[in-house]
């Protein structure tokens, strides 16, 4: 009996991880892949239409996966082009999940939850284990019976062993075809006495200037700078504006079909959007990876992440609203949470209200700092603003409530601070590689640093190899210091 218990106790947990991989296709393969996505969009539209008809006839809604599958079977083969039953069922699964998630939120008296209602031309298709074939970089997607087999090529090796891969999702983003590979990955096991210790707690204050400010035990701290991400967002907005201004005169009048040049403009805009999203997400993933590596190095077993839920709903004017939207806090916290889970670190969300305005030394309220430096007028404490947040988040419980004033529960305010950057690969991050979206400076081509050069090659994890002495806390101009960063 005990050996069974030991065996269960020793079973490592598993987590699901997803990687997105681009596809290399011939024009014919590309056409067929888009055909699958369009057919999936048709399935989605059919389900929405069905729901509408039933609502109009006063019939109860049809949302169970099994019932929807019965309806699909009635449609018969060949209704949805090359899309096979398993692909079509994945769309039904998506609808069913979305419907029940909304129903649950509405039961919990959330009146803003809406049932799926928007038709889409393209819908992602998911294929589960056993329906596709993955042979190194070659992937065979299942198609309807009678159609020739559809093989496509991945543009990199999947980062998981083949036997761990559970599903593959075909999707389109800004005209680029890619697949999301989801795998069941075991939680990292650490040698005894060297793994993360749950008693060692670190508080994390997510922000815009610093995506993660970590206050750990032993007066250790980590600051990840997100200025490159913010620059990327800023340039993308400028670029979008410039493009929109140029194309505005070509916009079709109401009732007109768009011209070819207008459609080209729209396509380019979608591509730029997708590229921007990819860049920001990649940088956020790297920032989270830096935090987790640092935590493992310091044997931190519990991460308390400040959840800024209240900030998101505040209306703070168009500029600040845009800043908050561009922050992508859901993704930021999500990737940190996932990476912590896989590393065997417990991550919990705590209410961060008041943590950035309480002095970590005397636990009294202090005025909101204008810049990066926090100063307590009562006891004279001075420290980095975001680390103050982190140090106050660490002793908090999940339920929120006042910050405990007990000295023993607090992590010591970080004295030794490690500085890292998020998005070191982003264009314009170093002086030798200017972002091509920036206008040449000094007025003309004479002052231009020339054509954009590729980023320096990266070795290993992109952020870890930098010398820790890189300080980047330049004083910010006073106009840039408003609001939550
Ligand atoms: Zn104080």
Description:
With 485 residues, the protein is of the alpha+beta class. It folds into two domains: 21-185, no CATH class; 191-246 and 279-437, no CATH class. 35% of the residues lie in helices and 19% in strands. It is built from ten helices and 15 strands. The chain has helices at 2-10, 27-56, 65-75, 85-107, 227-247, 260-297, 309-313, 317-327, 329-343, 385-393; strands at 14-24, 125-128, 133-135, 138-141, 150-154, 165-173, 176-186, 197-206, 212-215, 220-225, 300-307, 346-351, 373-375, 382-384, 416-421. Strands 2-6-7-1-5-4-3 form a seven-stranded antiparallel β-sheet. α2 (27-56) packs across α4 and α3 packs antiparallel against α4. It is globular, with a radius of gyration of 26 Å. The chain starts with a helix and ends in a 64-residue tail after the last strand. Residues 237-283, 387-485 are annotated as: Disordered. In the C-terminal section; belongs to the transposase 35 family. Residues 332-393 form the Cas12f1-like TNB domain.
